[in-house]
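User: tokens in, sequence out, please.
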């Protein structure tokens, strides 16, 4: 028997507020799995409510990985995420546990499974010129510039995320080709694992209702107080997590620039737009088994459960028998 078999991992993709975490925990309980977050916002410590980190009660005793691993002043990158994820995967392999990824950041999943191409060395001079151009021409300028250089990358980057826009434009200019093309070249695919991808696709109006309800719940559960505490802790104003949806709007409330109700509406609108960008990305992901509905819907769970078992058996039967059933004597 192969001592290093190709093993399955499950990746649950879908827009924010679609119930990925709920489905992941439910599957983990039935497939001897553990949850691995694949979300650029949940990496940061202290930014909890607005990034929708699952609470202790929501985790239901299932171990969760790659949450709270970065300081707010550290930089999150797709390459850094892959390095951390590979360490987690090696640990889960040793303990014979099925990795179940909850994917909010599509680029991170792609970096993990397919690898990343080498990008040109960063140019501080170019970045400074781009920041100056953004200040001169106002909101939306950098996003329009990226759309001309690389429409595919512009489709999934938040128009308000200046740092990510500058980084993407920088690569396009220095590499003399779109960032999306750079990412497709020279990759180093993940070895020893085979992905089973489940996609959650709620109906649009239902998803938007879920986004609105979750925003209201976050505010009711102390999101504003979390933002105040973060600023009071002495974090620099330019720390990356303060650019996340909701945190920037609530900062304006704290500074008395806008009322809370205006911020609430702005957060809901920005989250809807983000969900749309996520679906644009995930629809291009190959090999996804799409399910219409939310991750906490019994019908969706049933389909995800039966589909996962079927694909686990079909793709990696011999390896699974060695890994998961050696001491159990029955199929998963």
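Assistant: Sequence out:
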């Amino acid at each position: 028997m192969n001592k290093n078999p190709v093993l399955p991992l499950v990746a649950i993709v879908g827009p924010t507020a679609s119930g990925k975490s709920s489905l992941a925990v439910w599957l983990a309980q039935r497939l001897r799995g553990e949850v691995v977050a694949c979300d650029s916002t949940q990496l940061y410590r202290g930014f909890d409510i607005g990034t929708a980190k699952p609470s202790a009660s929501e985790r239901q005793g299932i171990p969760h990985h790659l949450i709270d691993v970065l300081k707010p002043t550290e930089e999150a990158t797709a390459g850094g995420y892959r390095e951390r994820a590979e360490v987690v995967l090696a640990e889960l392999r040793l303990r014979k546990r099925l990795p179940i990824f909850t994917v909010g950041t599509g680029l991170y999943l792609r970096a993990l499974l397919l690898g990343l191409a080498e990008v040109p060395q960063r140019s501080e001079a170019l970045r400074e010129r781009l920041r100056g151009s953004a200040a001169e021409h106002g909101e939306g300028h950098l996003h329009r510039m990226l759309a001309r250089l690389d429409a595919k990358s512009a489709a999934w980057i938040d128009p308000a995320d200046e740092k990510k826009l500058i980084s993407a434009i920088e690569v396009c200019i220095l590499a003399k080709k779109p960032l999306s093309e750079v990412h497709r070249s020279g990759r180093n695919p993940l070895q020893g694992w085979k992905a089973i991808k489940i996609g959650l696709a709620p109906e649009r109006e239902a998803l938007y209702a879920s986004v609105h309800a979750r925003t209201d719940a976050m505010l009711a559960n102390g999101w504003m107080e979390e933002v105040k505490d973060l600023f009071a802790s002495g974090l620099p104003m330019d720390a990356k997590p303060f650019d996340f949806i909701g945190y920037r709007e609530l900062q304006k409330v704290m500074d008395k620039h806008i009322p809370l109700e205006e911020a609430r509406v702005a957060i809901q609108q920005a989250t809807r737009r983000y969900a749309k960008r996520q679906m644009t990305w995930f629809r291009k992901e190959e090999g996804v088994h799409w399910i219409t509905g939310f991750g906490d819907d019994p019908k969706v769970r049933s389909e995800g459960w039966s589909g996962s078992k079927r694909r686990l058996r079909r793709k990696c039967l011999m390896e699974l028998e060695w890994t998961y059933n050696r001491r159990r004597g029955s199929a998963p």
